[in-house]
Amino acid sequence: MNNSNISYHAETNGIGLTNDLLIEILTKLPLKCIYRYKCVSRSWQRLIADRYVATRLPLILSGVFYRSGPEDLKLEPRYGCNSNGCFYETDFSYLPFYHNSSIIDCNNGLLLFYRSIPSAFHVCNPTTKTWAALPKPRGNSQLSILAFDAYKSPYYKVVCFSGWQAQGGQLEVFSSETDQWVEHSLNWGVDTNSLSASMHYFDGVLYVLALPGHVACIDLEKMCSNVIELPEDMKQDTSLGNSGGFLHCTINDANELRIWVLKGMKWALKNKVSVSGILKWNGDCRDMSSANFLHHGQFKFLAFHPKEDVVYLWVMGKLMSYDLCKKRFGLVCELGTEKERVQVIQIWLFPYSDNISNCLA
Question: Tell me, what's a Pfam family for it (predicted)?
């Protein structure tokens, strides 16, 4: 048993159950219930906030997707969460700025909204239905990123790229800890024109894929940048992620998905997954090559499990998991009857943490 300051056997929390039994019950409940039960009493709040308990709670799964159809005059990013095996779109009608703002980024359960006229940023926590209006940055944002790590801190950052040079540019960084924007000038170490829109925030660093085969690493704490080489040149579907405390890279050439892990300054090939094998497991027998599936957005790598050797894939309207050690597929959830018209852009899997509920308190 974990040597916590909480006595799991002695304390009953006023309902006649030991904490061990109460923990077993809590781990079977949806995360929204967990947030509500924190308000029952101080002893319940301490129990749920304990790290031992938090590690046993189910991961929170959320994602951003597009839904296309005749009724959609323009593609607007949507946000949804997994519940009971289905992926449900979140209703944001409670937000006063929702109808004239768009979701431009999401990170570990927080959403970044932007309105162009007049310019305004909002950060929203859809789990707790809380939000914050950010002060206006000095420059005009050309690209904005939300950086939040629920493992480390209740504070988040918003990074706005406001100017470009040949191998660098200007950016403004907002910190919720100070409630201020700070301007910086950085040299990326690669040509600005080579930077892609594929980025990943991990352990205080914003990683940006750069053509043909580099990663610009922008340290948001030290405000400096360096470059590392990818293990191979980028393909159409190349992604960055993290798992087990290490940066990972996936490269999909329509034949196989190659998974690389960065240890120190060296990449090591961790696994290969056959794309045709995935499509066969899914039971799709249509006359379409794996390259066409990739081109039409019907097969896509989405995320790594934060701790285990499991990856998450988007295959024909289904969110699937693949255990790299056991070589086993699993169905996580579907997007209902309209799944053929849905394209998932990105998903996040992260554990319950008090930092998530406290970041906009």
Answer: b-prop_At3g26010-like
DSSP string over 54-87: HTTSPPEEEEEEEE-STT-SS---EEEEEETTEE
pLDDT tens, residue by residue, 130-148: 999 999 999 888 899 999 9
CA-CA-CA-CA torsion sign (103, 106, 110, 114): negative
Closest-CA residue to 109 (of 131, 126, 88, 84): 126
The H helix count followed by the E strand count for the chain is 7, 24
Condensed to tens digits (0 to 9), the pLDDT of residues 165-196 reads: 999 999 999 999 999 999 999 999 999 999 99
Q: Where does residue 150 rank: exposed (0-12), middle (13-18), buried (19+ CB within 10 A)?
A: buried
3-state secondary structure 191-259: CHHHEEEEEEEECCEEEEEECCCEEEEEECCCCEEEEEECCCCCCCEEEEEEECCEEEEEEECCCEEEE
| Residues 267 and 260 sit within 8 Å (Cβ to Cβ) | yes
**Cis peptide bond upstream of 212, omega within 30:** yes
Task: Work out the number of other CB atoms within 10 angstroms of the CB of residue 240.
Answer: 20
Closest among 75, 308, 61, 286 to 299, alpha carbons compared: 286
Task: Write out the DSSP string of 300-355.
Answer: EEEEE-SSSSEEEEEETTEEEEEETTTTEEEEEEE-GGGGGGEEEEEEEEE---HH
Q: What b/e readout covers 339-355, taking b as 16+ CB neighbours within 10 angstroms?
A: eeebbbebbbbbbbbbb
Residue with tokens 């409940």: 29
Length of the chain: 361
> Which tokens sit at 353?
């943490």
Answer whether 82's CB lies under 8 Å from 58's CB.
Answer: no
Q: How far apart (Å, rounded) are the C-alpha atoms in residues 338 and 328?
A: 27
Residues sharing a CB contact under 8 Å with residue 242, sequence separation 6 or more, in sequence order: 200, 202, 203, 248, 304, 306
